[in-house]
Amino acid sequence: MVDITPEDMVVVMAFRRRTRLIRPLMQQLQQRGILLLALCEPQTQLVIALARWQLCAPLDSVSGFNSYASAMSLINLPVSALLHEMLSQGHQRIHQIADLYQQFDELEHR
After folding, report:
1. Does domain 9-103 have CATH number 3.40.50.10490?
2. Would you say 60 and 84 are in contact if contact means Cβ atoms under 8 Å apart?
3. Is the full-model pTM beyond 0.85?
4. CA dihedral 91, 100, 74, 13 (to 10 degrees)
């Protein structure tokens, strides 16, 4: 949070099993004038109330487990749009992140 300014926007992904840190973090950002976009469930009223914009996706499913398919599609939409706008920087950033995963041996080898 050190270098985030009111010229930035923070995207908060807060679905069902979110940490307790989300609300105080959002409150702190909001107090500093940082714009917030929440990607969350429609029932997440505490998160929705703190964000300027909300994109909500239900997780409920008729099966025994929650379905994150709509949530992942919702997350993919703004991320892909931003990547398209900043294509060369975006690809470079993706490669840097992949290199970090490689260094920490976080990915299975194919």
Report:
1. yes
2. no
3. no
4. -130
